[in-house]
Amino acid sequence: MKNRERLKGLIAATFTPMLANREVNYDEIGNYARYIEKTGINGVFVCGTTGESTSLTTSERKQILSTWVKEAKGAFKIIAHVGSNCQREAMELASHAQTCGADGIAAIAPSFFKPATVTDLVQFFKPIAASAGNLPFYYYNMPAMTGVNLAVDQFLLEGKKQIPTLAGTKFTHNNLMEMGVCLALNDGEFEVLHGYDEILITGLAMGAVAGVGSTYNYIPSVYQGIIEAMQNNDVEKARILQMRSIQVVEIIIKYGGGVRGGKAIMNLTGIKCGDCRPPISPFSEEEYAMLTNDLNNIHFFK
Amino acid sequence: MKNRERLKGLIAATFTPMLANREVNYDEIGNYARYIEKTGINGVFVCGTTGESTSLTTSERKQILSTWVKEAKGAFKIIAHVGSNCQREAMELASHAQTCGADGIAAIAPSFFKPATVTDLVQFFKPIAASAGNLPFYYYNMPAMTGVNLAVDQFLLEGKKQIPTLAGTKFTHNNLMEMGVCLALNDGEFEVLHGYDEILITGLAMGAVAGVGSTYNYIPSVYQGIIEAMQNNDVEKARILQMRSIQVVEIIIKYGGGVRGGKAIMNLTGIKCGDCRPPISPFSEEEYAMLTNDLNNIHFFK
Amino acid sequence: MKNRERLKGLIAATFTPMLANREVNYDEIGNYARYIEKTGINGVFVCGTTGESTSLTTSERKQILSTWVKEAKGAFKIIAHVGSNCQREAMELASHAQTCGADGIAAIAPSFFKPATVTDLVQFFKPIAASAGNLPFYYYNMPAMTGVNLAVDQFLLEGKKQIPTLAGTKFTHNNLMEMGVCLALNDGEFEVLHGYDEILITGLAMGAVAGVGSTYNYIPSVYQGIIEAMQNNDVEKARILQMRSIQVVEIIIKYGGGVRGGKAIMNLTGIKCGDCRPPISPFSEEEYAMLTNDLNNIHFFK
Amino acid sequence: MKNRERLKGLIAATFTPMLANREVNYDEIGNYARYIEKTGINGVFVCGTTGESTSLTTSERKQILSTWVKEAKGAFKIIAHVGSNCQREAMELASHAQTCGADGIAAIAPSFFKPATVTDLVQFFKPIAASAGNLPFYYYNMPAMTGVNLAVDQFLLEGKKQIPTLAGTKFTHNNLMEMGVCLALNDGEFEVLHGYDEILITGLAMGAVAGVGSTYNYIPSVYQGIIEAMQNNDVEKARILQMRSIQVVEIIIKYGGGVRGGKAIMNLTGIKCGDCRPPISPFSEEEYAMLTNDLNNIHFFK
User: Fold this and answer.
1) Of C120, C286, D64, D189, which residue is 20 to 30 A from A248 by alpha carbon distance?
2) CB pair distance less than 8 Å for A281 and B119
3) Of the candidates D134, D105, D139, which has an alpha carbon nearest to the alpha carbon of residue D122?
4) φ/ψ (deg, to 5) at B90
5) What is the pLDDT of residues D160-179, one digit of tens each?
6) For the segment B22-69, what is each residue's pLDDT rounded down to a tens digit?
7) Are the C-beta atoms of residues D176 and D208 closer than 8 Å to each other?
8) D139 classed as catalytic
9) Any chain B CB within 8 A of the CB of C196?
10) What is the ipTM of this complex?
11) Does A184 contact D at CB distance below 8 Å?
12) Least CB-CB distance to D85: which of C55, C119, C281?
């Protein structure tokens, strides 16, 4: 683990392309991968929240990941999200992730039965991480979706003793004080991947150097600009770009959020992602017309 | 559907017996079934919250259900819980439930991606119910676990138009006004199965005639007494028995709630249910000693 | 305290009548008191949530209470709500309540700074109760409004040691297990006044013998019927009446809840209560027309 | 309003000094004011959350404000918090603030009865702001305490039409996207005062130029350093100082938060603030010893 390269820059949380009958459209992943490569995005986060992991079967999740690995051809990093309420399913996915060639794994906290303590969370993840051999493991912290709001810094400290491959956390939470604490732990031992696209500037200000996000898929240059500006200490420029990102995020919120609204924008930008699976309702023609209008109003399509 | 018999009395939500390595202990289900039969409980609710459904794989859930059907030998009713965040998994489980001979199915709302409207919930359940053919379908409403708090009465009315087999709801919520409204709909068209054991008396007062609960497993006579007393309009007697139930529930809350604490009591009463799967932590020897002491203090073991 | 008579039956939580300019309409309290007397309601709860206590100044609260005492002429009991985020204001109100002749006091938990423990809550109330001399003190428990959800049974036990006048609790919460525990404490030492009108039947089933409610003001006979039926062990009759109450509560919820909607119904039934103070918005003419229509649909006006 | 100077830099939210009997210690305000002046802090925010406004009577709030105005002698700005659940009390406080010479007023949302819409909130504040004549009005947004989470940008836009003196918002919330939107409105028409000390760097990154905080009282140079560093585009330096602030905030959280823990630190630093009023429990000798030790561990006292 010692010499492993840390994640840097943008990791796009991928949407899962679907056909009209809501079967997975594995064929589109090739186009999607070539698009990602062209944008210069540093990696993808496969079958996370954006990828509707909880709406997919275990075998679908495996095949989606394998397809991404095959299509990426090493051009960018691949982080496999293997989280599940069912520890055994997560272990199976973790093992598969290693076998098929992913660069790392991440897992969200179980959210039906919620871990009562940090120790419960560590014990839940321990065999999952171990199933992926040497692949780095990231705890995907997202209290707004899971209702699990255990102290991440304590998790990292306690977890490291039990999980040798623990690399850090995908921190999708607006508790930026906690993010700062995690970044500062043991002089920066852990990677903290910023999670909320609309406030990337704040995570970078706190010291993050990488982010995982769904809107990176369709406005990558905005975020690449934010990262570059902050590296150059040009806060003013980063802020102007962040406000651009916020304009787009305000629109997706209007259409049900980053998964539902984001998938619709992907369709408009030429990657055929189709509709979401239930319980997320399909996008109607009227909505597409309204969305296009909203995007035109902010000159989304140059 | 017209002449289908309505559920009445007590339906025990079964625990999933597990071995020391946390594999499912299918062999114990036979003993468990004979115990249930002896108690006079009217039916079982298999692989629900109490049964740790979200911690089980799809194939495990099928095999557990099949084993219950086989062991019950028609002595009591079997309701299969088929709910899942993944609609396709739920459909597969629903189809299997019909094939293997269950008497009805139930499904909890998806809780990672939450349905935004009653319509989304109906659309989510529609193909699941259809996969079970003519089996009656119950919506398992449990906002405290799912965070989904859509109006159940509206769900029943709208759902009935799309789901011909919709029989009613397992109502695990302390909004007893809403329960009353559901019971009164269309002059009692829908079955409303009371869900919180510690307040069964209040559900019966509102008009419920059946309940699904986990503590029915180990103090069935208390609840049978409550139902009988309320049928005889003896509120005072029902109340005394309800206070007995509350004494037991206060103890299980102390040990982590009905799943973790309840499973430990099952072990003490002779059904080898073992420990829960992560993220629910195992029960220690010290805890068993304390639990036994607490139960002795209320003369649990006569 | 020993021989003090316990509260029984219905205590109406009074609305605070207001003029068009939203000044308190003290003059209407006389009519209101004669109306209450005519209904046979057992008492009033003055300046509680329904009475918009938090929107009133300290001097207004005193004058409203004095007016009620004067107008009641001993025909029914008067419980003064003296709760406030400011302990010193509550002490002043408690002292005034005793001086002016109220029969008891109640106080809600402070809800901006929330007590962290039961001990904090006891310490907060102790000097307030003491300021009212021998008047019985009721803890007004209403977690949905205050966000304070400390164990009421523990409060009663610990509080009794510090507050000799502690009589019980106005229990406005749907945790009916906790209500049952409070009723059973020390063989029924404490009075538990049921708080949610729409589920009065469930509180009576648990053992309550008195209730405090806002809809008692305009459909008293419904609730008197529920209490009488439950005393006669006629659960069926009580349930039918409770469903009548629920029909009315469903309408007030549609108009913003028991304070805003209830005040409008009072105006329609002839007690000139006027509008609520901000932040509760005034009732428009259109809303009055709709409300009248809704009430006609359930034959509210015989 | 046109030429009014905008707030810049640090505004300390003052603690309310109290005697052993928990009466307000007006005499200490002189020392406190001289201390503030010496630190170079730009202004004070009087009788806000930190000042325990909800635990004070109206007359105490007036006298505290008057004392601050008198003792400040124009050396720094004075913002009077006049918020109350009772609109009339808030109007009285607003009028007094103008009369006695405050530089601006702020009001928190009513939190017992919560405004249902932005319009309700505007209507609630309109007569309060008007009572202070030409003094600039700030909406004190703090959803974690009030439970009121209405869109602040919509409030500013709609409010400006009704409240000519509306200057902006004290934004105490970790929704930094919303803060960014407020800052960007109408090319920066509104002042947005950053509220959470532990993440000041993130608010400055989003474009804020002023903050209101309680820890500014005892580590002012840390925050002055953060502001200066960010003005110089030295994000790295600002981050190091922010981590220093976080070390202190972690300690006050351990002792019950910024009001209780902060007041104890003030006592240690020589301003005799005494204890908090109930329901906030007093600080024990043991706690002072532990707190001193915790502060020594981070070299708080140089």
Assistant:
1) D189
2) yes
3) D139
4) -65, -40
5) 999 999 999 999 999 999 99
6) 999 999 999 999 999 999 999 999 999 999 999 999 999 999 999 999
7) no
8) no
9) yes
10) 0.97
11) yes
12) C55
